[in-house]
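Example 3.2
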Amino acid sequence: MMSNTYLAARRGLARLPTLRWWCATHPGEVRRTLFAAAIVTVLAACTPFGEEGTTDSKTASPGPSQQQGDPTRPTADGGGGMTPTQAPATPMVRIDAAEGSYAIDAREATGDELGRFFDAVRSGAYKPSDPRCTWKSKESYGSSHDDCDGRQPSAAAGCTEWCDAVEYCAWAGKRLCGKIGGGVAKQSETRDPHKSQWTRACVGTRASAAVFPYGDQSQVGRCNTKEIGLQRPNAPGSLAQCSGSPTDLFDMSGNVGEWEDSCDLTVGNHGVCDIRGGSYKHPIDQTGCSADVLGDAEIPYDDVGVRCCKDL
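Structure, written as tokens:
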């Protein structure tokens, strides 16, 4: 049965003498025109969102703010034009120790950078290979991070599992900070500045780990700790005074906690690992260079992120 809409349209066309004459004398053209119009209509209806005429964040060309040099959105060439799955060239700080020289990221990874890593994994552009993380499926990478209430593209990334941190560093051509000289730090060594890469970078030239990156006494307001009331991670390095004895090493205290390559993988389903430096949720006395708590490797804590190291 013909619809009322179709019949009304046909009656309207019939009132146009010239068009009615053309339809009567060119039946083949009418059929071809109607057929082409139907195809265009079907194609338009079936085009998935995000392929054309949308601004899907994972596929759209970068806007002006992304193309300019922004310290919270570094690119592999130091400028714009970064592909969606390309690892960032995060600035690093060199640490020279008698036990071995290495470099450490000057800041924590941002939500945007970790999001690029998850895109790389799920698209197949990067294949996780650490044998300790074979329990994670490709699809599980970033599943919790995507829904993280605290995720902001330019802020330090939270909602990070330990394997996310391990593989993120490998994707970036580095490793999760562990033992000075290479390998995994034993959990009995994490507070020893002669054994732990993270601790040595935090204390700098000071001999004791029972200090803060900026000095021997805590100073409220220098770093993003519970006392300042921000209640979320901020952009790494945005508190310039939250730096250590290497003056261009930021946020080793507070902001987000940082996974360390120091685990007991026999505990629980997938082990427990060290989290360093405290976060915005912790009072200042829990954010020093000796701050060290254990977390379940499989839990994406909303205030825990990642910083990487590289052996030299």
